Amino acid sequence: MKNKEKILIIDDDEGICKTLSLILENEGYSVETANTGKEALEKSKTKTYNVALLDIRLPDIEGTKLLKALPEGTPRMIKIMVTGYPQLGNAVEALNLGADAYLMKPVYPGDLIKTIEEKLEAQKKAETMTEEKIAVFLEARTQKLLEDLG
Predict the structure, then answer these.
(1) 109 Cβ partners below 8 Å, 6+ apart?
(2) Average pLDDT for residues 106-111, to the nearest whole number?
(3) What tens digit of pLDDT does each residue of 48-59 get?
(4) Residue 108 parent element (H or E)
(5) Hey, what domains does the chain have and what are their CATH numbers?
């Protein structure tokens, strides 16, 4: 079972939201959905998500624009574009704007879970490295303060 990492699915297709939610909840993730960019932004203002799955075409905003609008939390939210409109231009733009991965619909459960797990592992490593850097900094700073006092 996972540590209840939180995933936000942003897609205007209710069927896709339900299907992906069932797959991910079955894997132990905590899942919420949003059907518009506005709803996704509202939810992400009050909650922290480990992962966002973004449809590239939403009724109120392009998914690539939503990529930049979603807040950066701690840990940094992993953003995975999911599209039924695969175009090289979309993929390049999404990756240049900060997408961590790009999947095409229909999304195969095994591919989705593997991608999420790989990205979460990288997220955990980055978080651990940050904590280690802070610890080293604090230790060096404390040592300097002690030397200055002594």
Answers:
(1) 23
(2) 90
(3) 999 999 998 899
(4) none
(5) 6-123 (3.40.50.2300)
